[in-house]
Specification:
The structure is a homodimer.
Chain A lengths: L1 H16 L1 H12 L11 H17 L3 E5 L6 E6 L8 E7 L19 E3 L6 E3 L7 H18 L5 E7 L9 H7 L8 E4 L11 E6 L1 E10 L5 E2 H4 L6 H10 L22 H9 L4 H8 L13 H6 L3 E10 L8 E2 L2 E10 L5 H14 L6 E10 L2 E2 L5 H10 L8 E5 L4 H10 L3 E5 L13 E3 H19 L5
Parallel strand pairs in A: 3-6, 3-7, 7-17, 8-16
Antiparallel strand pairs in A: 1-2, 2-6, 4-5, 5-18, 8-15, 8-17, 9-13, 9-14, 10-12, 11-13
Helix pairs in contact in A: 1-4, 1-14, 2-4, 4-14, 5-13, 12-14
Chain lengths: ~475, ~475
């Protein structure tokens, strides 16, 4: 035990000694606008993949930037130092969300700046925490182990996706093709949040997603609302009416079969969540809103965001949206609509039910066209996994407060696929905070979280190495 | 009578001899992008006003381009040749609708082109018919009378507005300030349509309008739909639900007090409308739609568009509307919503009822902000006006088919104000066709309608001159 403690201490010292370099490397990759959903940025996405490839080669990994039907996948590998050391597969993504609305950023989204604050500073840029900053936490932990001890005490495989923010269309094919090379004992994913700045967290529930774009078409061109108003179905009114009918007055979803298979979490889990002491005021403050009136009535915020499915409009557009007034009946109106799914819901069936619900409400003379932007199930990580215990022990090397076992309302398509295709548990250990403005203008990552994340991964690597391979 | 016929014939000859010049002048003014609703075009709007001012000066009118709180008003005047000749006030507007969506135009909207077709050609540009082309029909008629006879046999006053497409905010103040100088025996407005290409029309009913922009605000910034979905009210869902609730299942409007004061037209009028032989197939074809499912069930299309009030969304925008998927709860969502009003509805009360209806549906945590883009009542022109008989006689000089007496679903804010403030009848005699794509890409004006409009105004001037001043 003394030897392990001494080793871990040397690794932690290396992290502290080179932390400024870690920050500089994160800034370098944040300068690449790898927006995967926007075809205009296809070269930037590849440039980000290649940047990570070079990082892994510097660290002595073998690495490939693998072409897919969409954006490339980064696959890197470093053999275990001995046959009885386990192998850990790390997953993250190097693509980012679009940066708009650009005028709400205080600094350019791809020109990362360090802003001083009461918490020891933060790095502000698109992707700062989601997910480039989190990917760097484990890469910097690898670097520290090599620097302090000459090696990493476990086998490491890394898979970095370039389509996490745009539906992960190529992931399944990649997992099938690389199944044997991805073989590992456990998977570690860094794309979630801490409980708070002092309390690390391991997320054991994630929502899935169905993302659909619906375009309602009516007349062949925009019409004068005086000459045609009252005669012709207005696609903007039609689509609004359909969206309005997605929910009942009590906030529940009215789409038939939407709740098929949905169950409440066990009372034990609900009790655990209640004991977390959820800070509603801070949650509301992070959203800059005075009260939480979304979703189903009669359930707590944690229940609603962690264990209940939702339907949200992510964008809607139709007709004249410039300055002033224009009196038209628009020819088309379209909305991006996404459902967050919970365990028990089948993504394909939900997508089919939603389409059928919308189609049934389209009046004669109008039509609807759908574009699917992905469908993936929710996941649950077993709370009794021995790797979860090891991760908890590793986090104790970096934080005084024990790790909280929590859920998350977000979706990471890869996790369900990794669990089902590779047959291994996925540990969701991330270092974001609620006020990180993920997917929003002025996204940031606290430097204390970057440092704590690197230290946590270093600690977890030590704890994993202590576990014999099963 | 022989002398009158000979005079009219000389005027008509002048129109034919110089028709190419008339087309060229219309092209010149169509090149000025006088989009009144868009602040970026404020100088273009003024340039258009000044162009018309110069035209009137060339024709020997005294003319002023009058500043208002908004865009300028063009006022031109030419004294009656004798004390017993009546004075006619002409109204039109020189501003135009925005041209977007630009990618749907076959030629640039402000680069007017003559397209050959089976109907003798058409001029394609924003404003071709609404309303620059129609304004030119009476200006060219003035020119032809002067060219053929050395004078115009009636007193002429002209008032050209620059805010018709953006709410006519300055009109009332102008009418008050210029009330005495605008004094006339009758007003002629050219901003409506013919019954069909062979049948001129005098419109005796016009709908009014209330135009409101509603912006729903929720969280202070766009939120991650995973972390907040199910907890926070989504402004796009909220606004869609409100819009969806504006109508009942039978297509009627659900806003309280919306139908207060609304009555069906007298059976005599309804019978007249039925006898017009409305061509539904051609109406639907002009809208490029297969069936007319908008508005209230159990009423004909003419009833719905001429005599029933409506609510239409003219534009809606919120959240991410770029390519691909972005998983946010938008901070705001806004819609441009306009009501077409019929006689009996009070615009101020309708606007207040609509605002109250929307406000009542805003959930806690969200708020709504309104911008008003105008409110004006519907108008009815008395069917027994002697000026209507004179106009009918004048139109018979230009067309073989007698004029139809019709309604219109459109709104011309000026007409109600002119009637109430100046105390004179307004004759709505316009030369548009249903397929003119008014307010849409590829707006056009048939050259046969331009020619017929000029000849009609020339004929009406002759008929008005035959009437003694009352």
């Amino acid at each position: 035990m003394t030897s392990t403690t001494q080793t871990t201490s040397k690794v932690m010292d290396s992290i502290e000694a080179h932390f400024d370099d870690s920050v500089a490397r994160l800034q370098a990759i944040l300068r690449v606008p790898s927006i995967s959903t926007d075809p205009a940025h296809v070269d930037d996405v590849r440039a980000a993949a290649e940047w990570f490839g070079r990082e892994f080669e510097h660290l002595g990994f073998s690495c490939e930037v693998v072409d897919t039907p969409g954006h490339p996948m980064v696959f890197a590998e470093r053999k275990a130092p001995s046959d009885d050391a386990p192998t850990v597969l790390y997953y993250g993504h190097y693509d980012v969300q679009p940066a708009d609305p650009l005028d709400q950023w205080n600094s350019p989204p791809f020109d990362p700046v360090i802003v001083d604050d009461a918490n020891g500073g933060r790095i502000v840029a698109r992707g700062a925490v989601d997910d480039k900053g989190q990917v760097m936490t484990f890469i910097e932990a690898f670097r520290a182990w090599i620097d302090a001890t000459g090696d990493i005490p476990v086998g490491v495989k890394v898979m970095l996706e370039g389509e996490e923010e745009s539906g992960s269309e190529s992931l399944e094919g990649f997992l099938d093709a690389f199944k044997d090379r991805l073989a590992a004992d456990v998977c570690v994913v860094s794309d979630t949040g801490m409980w708070n700045a002092e309390t690390p967290a391991i997320t054991t529930m994630l929502r899935g997603m169905v993302y659909l774009e619906a375009e309602v078409r009516g007349p062949g061109h925009d019409l004068h609302s005086g000459m045609y108003g009252g005669a012709i179905a207005n696609p903007a009114n039609v689509l609004s009416r359909i969206i309005g009918s997605l929910h009942r007055d009590d906030g529940s979803v009215a789409v038939p079969h939407f709740y098929d298979g949905v169950a409440d979490p066990p009372q034990r889990i609900l009790d655990q969540w209640r004991d977390l002491g959820f800070d509603e005021a801070s949650f509301l403050s992070s959203a800059e809103i005075s009260t939480a009136t979304g979703g189903e009535t009669g359930r707590t915020i944690l229940e609603r965001t962690w264990s209940r499915p939702t339907i949200d409009v992510n964008g809607i557009h139709g007709g004249y949206t410039g300055a002033g007034a224009k009196t038209i009946i628009p020819a088309t109106c379209s909305a991006k609509i996404s459902c967050r799914l919970v365990p028990g819901q089948d993504p394909e069936r939900i997508e089919a039910s939603l389409k059928a619900f919308i189609e049934a409400a389209i009046p004669e003379g109008c039509s609807v066209k759908f574009v699917s932007h992905g469908a993936n199930p929710a996941v649950v990580v077993p709370a009794d996994s021995p790797w979860l215990a090891a991760a908890t022990a590793g986090l104790a090397e970096a934080y005084d407060t024990p790790a909280a076992i929590i859920g998350s309302g977000g979706s990471i398509p890869a996790v369900g696929d990794i669990q089902s295709k590779l047959g291994i548990d996925a540990l969701l250990v991330g270092f974001g905070l609620d006020d990180d403005r993920v997917h929003s203008p002025n996204e940031k990552f606290d430097l204390r979280c970057l440092r704590g994340g690197i230290r946590s991964h270093a600690g977890m690597i030590g704890a994993f190495a202590d576990r014999p391979r099963h």
